[in-house]
Amino acid sequence: MDLLADNGSLNSMRTLGRYIVLEILKVFVPLWVGLSFFPLLAEWAARVFNLKGSALTSLLAYVYKYPSYLQMVFPLTLLIASVVVFRGMNRDREIVAFESFGVRYRDLFKPLLLVVVLCGIPFLWISLELSPRGLRAHYDLYDHIKGRKSRVGQYRQEKIWYRSGDVLYNIGFYDPRKKELLEVSLYEFDDAFQLRKITNAKKAVWTGRNWLLLGGSQVFVSNELEQPGREDFEVLENHIMEEPEDLKRYEFNPEILTQRELYETIKRYQGLGINTAIWETTFHSRFSFLALSFVLLLVALPRTFRFRRSNNMAKDLTFISVFSLFFWIANSIIKTLGDEGRIHPLLATWGLVFVIFIYATINVMRLKLADQSE
């Protein structure tokens, strides 16, 4: 009999889990798409009359920005969808029915974690790839409409200095249309950072895989040589210099860089001794923002499990709004401190999430099996 009871409880939990996941997703998906349009339309309407282009062109600029709005409203949307579903289940006494099969309140958070994982997959793709590329296109088109030079995606064309490992190289001029470099000089150093070779070329052309240096010479100046040596060349392959796309300049903010571009930027700047706090904070915040979604659920949902005969959805949504606003302000202040390097980027992006997670977990563990009424 105990085995049958255990099996019945296990089957009930699985049924409940599938039911909760499907119900939340049915509310979440259209709500996520719909809510993200409100800030888009509001910002577009506020600025459309100040733009030189047509209304449709300016609207396209903000359509490019739409993925960033999806990213912004994700935690709040998931929270609202979950509260709506659980409040409805509680009002209809569905949760009480599952309790009779041995399901505990704490068990209801297991399908929530699955919901966060399922919704987190498209969210991470949007946050790490789609949103940065969309913002990049938005700023580029927006500046074009405003009739000014683009803040992003410009190519460095004159007197470019780069470093790749133990090699410094200078480019006199870069033609992005032809993918050609003019007046190229490379300075290679040994482990003791002593100059050992200088390579000069009149031109370099991109083959699709590497650069070809044309019409130049190599001068060997290592201390191990009795005298400098020189070798002329007509064509010389080079695999050290950056690819054409990496010669672009992205100076507006780290939000327009994909996660891979952020990682490479951080490593490159750290190698040059540049403070990378703002880049690291953005890098980590894209992951902590997903964790934030689950933390908000842990904080807000215990109050929805309390059975009430009256519908207090308005109170729940008010609580959600006030708590989310408070957390948003606190998180923004701490992130700013991380951007400025006043606190470590990891602490700036994960510290508050971790503290609230501990607080919320304690509240969840205190949930009682019995119904509570106000």
Structural summary, described in words:
The protein is of the alpha+beta class and 374 residues long. The protein has 2 domains: 2-149 and 277-365, no CATH class; 155-247, no CATH class. Helices cover 56% and strands 17% of the residues. A 6-stranded antiparallel beta sheet has the order 2-3-4-5-6-7, with no helix packed on it. Strands 1-8 form a two-stranded antiparallel ribbon. Strand 6 and strand 7 (229-238) form a beta hairpin. Helix 1 packs parallel to helix 6 (109-146), helix 4 packs antiparallel against helix 6 (109-146) and helix 8 runs parallel beside helix 10 (345-365). The longest helix has 38 residues, at 109-146. The radius of gyration is 28 Å and the shape is elongated. It starts with a helix and ends in a 9-residue tail after the last helix.
- E-strand count: 8
Task: Give start-end ranges of low-pLDDT stretches.
Answer: 1-8, 369-374
What's the shape?
elongated
Give, in spatial order, the strands making up the sheet with the most strands.
Answer: 2-3-4-5-6-7
Helical segment count: 10
Kindly report how far apart the N and C termini lie.
37 Å
Average of pLDDT? 78
Number of domains: 2
Biggest β-sheet: count, sense, barrel? 6 strands, antiparallel
Radius of gyration: 28 Å
